[in-house]
Structure formats: C-alpha cells, structure tokens
Specification:
Blueprint: E1 4-6, H1 13-19, H2 37-44, H3 50-65, E2 70-77, E3 80-89, E4 93-100, H4 109-121, E5 126-131, H5 135-143, E6 151-155, E7 159-166, E8 181-184
Parallel strand pairs: 4-5
Antiparallel strand pairs: 1-2, 2-3, 3-4, 5-7, 6-7, 6-8
Helix pairs in contact: 1-3
Length: 198
C-alpha cells in the first residue's frame, strides 16, 4: 500500500482528528500504574469533539501561516491519515504529537516523518517527553539521536514520562501541565512512578 507524507490542510482536518483518536495513536495504557483507556480519555479528552477539532484547526492554520515556527506532517493511506508528526520552535524545538496507527507501523513511515522533522529543525536543540514504559518509542528516538537523561515526570501526577533531548538542551523549567511532578529517576526504586520494572 502506497503512503504519502503531506502537510495538513483545513480540508483534511477531520481525517487528521480521526487518526489521533484511533487505538494505537494515544498514550499507551499500563495496568500496573492504574492507567487504562478510561483514565487516558478523562485526561486527554477526545480530539473528535467540537473542541478537539477546533484545537486542530487552530494549530493547522498556525502551521500553514508560520511554517518556520510550527511543523506538521501526516501520512496518508488512500483517504485516511494513518500517522502524524508535529512540532514547535521556541527556545528549543519540541516534538509532538507523534502518532502512527498500528497498521502503519513497521513500514519505515515513522522514520520518514522523523527525517522530515529533523530537516525542518536543522541543528536546533530539541527535546521530547516519552512514555517511560514504551520501550519501542524510546529505541525509535534513540536511533534518531535522542538520549535518555534520567529525568522523569509524572504527567497529571500519574503517567510516567522520561525526558529525551537531542543536541545541547538546557535543563527545562517545569512548564508542563498542572499536576505534573518532575524528578530524577532513582534506579534502585524502579521507574519514575515507583513501579519496579522487570
């Protein structure tokens, strides 16, 4: 199946929103941490609501008018968007969201999206917070030059993420969502959330 990487447009907005609402494109559940689909939905909401579509529309309009400050690309398979990678340029470049539906994985599409993103970002320092227990994502970012720092954050006080900068990125000030807790991981006490990893 042929896949095309494309910039977003207002005419494809609903397809973009539909991609990020599909299983395999969201925060991954973790029963040990008490993170299930219901908790994730309560925290993130749904991008296919009127509010979610309005948020995407606003971001896409900004990306169209400020391509040097905002990056967004999607992977199209026929009429469906099966992957998205977006980012912002501030003092450092932040990467996210990045989604790739399960059916589209394993075809180098994530790597192609990342190559376009890295070309846009040039040599700017960047960082990404990655789900701590998503080893596939961590290995993917490591292959593209991101490194684990040992810093972690509990998003909304529960969801464990680890910081992965690429290039010389200064230590971030806590500027994330309310309810986040940032700490340095203690390898003797399990992960960011205190859950022992086996």
């Amino acid at each position: 199946m042929a896949h095309q990487i494309e910039a977003p447009s207002l005419t494809t907005l609903h397809a973009w929103a539909g991609c990020s609402s599909q299983p395999g494109s969201r925060l991954p559940p973790n029963a040990d941490a008490g993170i299930d689909e219901t908790w994730i939905r309560e925290q993130r909401g749904s991008v296919v609501t009127a509010e979610g579509v309005a948020h995407w529309r606003e971001f896409i309009e900004e990306a169209v008018h400020q391509p040097d400050m905002l990056f967004c690309r999607g992977v199209r398979s026929r009429a469906e968007i099966v992957g998205v990678l977006c980012g912002r340029r501030h003092d450092v470049v932040t990467l996210g969201p990045m989604y790739l539906l399960n059916d589209a994985q394993g075809q180098w599409l994530g790597g192609r999206l990342m190559d376009e993103f890295l070309a846009w970002a040039d040599d700017a320092p960047m960082h990404r917070w990655v789900t701590e227990y998503n080893e596939v994502a961590i290995r993917f970012y490591e292959r593209h030059g991101f490194e684990l720092t040992g810093e972690c954050e509990l998003w909304r006080g529960k969801f464990p993420t680890v910081r992965m900068p690429r290039g010389p990125v200064p230590h971030p000030k806590i500027a994330s969502d309310e309810g986040s807790v940032q700490a340095v991981r203690d390898p003797n006490h399990g992960g960011c959330d205190g859950i022992q990893r086996g």
